[in-house]
């Protein structure tokens, strides 16, 4: 095995002008490989939150991490669900709070998450030879905002990646929404008042 001493150091320079970050999304076409739009969890970090966490704290963590979806971990650290910003700011928490006779801020993620049993996944081997058009059509047909990519392992499924409808919409310049979307608390309140 080579030693670190065998490698030449690379030259460093200073930043010139006003530094900028690259755009978050790149234009894509329906015929591009689907995998080009997948967030690969082997390379990109994902956010995991505890099932006992509250909605405001979770939204803060997600905002700080710059993500719109987080996995929910149970007592032993196993994945038991997922939550999205749309779920947490939409009607789901309000309806659950009304049903349970509690304040929205008293709800835990376990009460509002999408449980693992309801996840819709696609096998990783299918993605390897698919196009973005196949993926977009699938997400549109099933009304999915997120699609998890799973790989079969010795001890069950390994979540390898995530497709986001928001990312696809930005890359393709089209909208993948079908049917009614979750409303914010303000929109729901306004609808209930009329």
CATH-level-2 architecture: Roll
Query: How does the major sheet shape up?
Result: 4 strands, mixed
| Spatial separation of the terminal alpha carbons | 72 Å
User: Which series of helices and strands comes N to C?
Assistant: EEHEEHHHEEHHEEHH
Helix content: 25-40%
Q: How many runs of DSSP E, i.e. beta strands?
A: 8
Q: What is the CATH first-level class name?
A: Alpha Beta
Order of strands side by side in the largest beta sheet? 1-8-7-6
Average residue-wise pLDDT: 87
Global outline: globular
For CATH, the homologous superfamily is named as: CBS-domain
CATH T-level topology: CBS-domain
What is the strand content?
15-25%
Pfam families: CBS
Protein name: CBS domain-containing protein
Domain CBS: 45-88
The gist of it:
With 194 residues, this protein is α/β, with parallel strands linked by helices. The chain has 8 helices and 8 strands, in the order E-E-H-E-E-H-H-H-E-E-H-H-E-E-H-H.
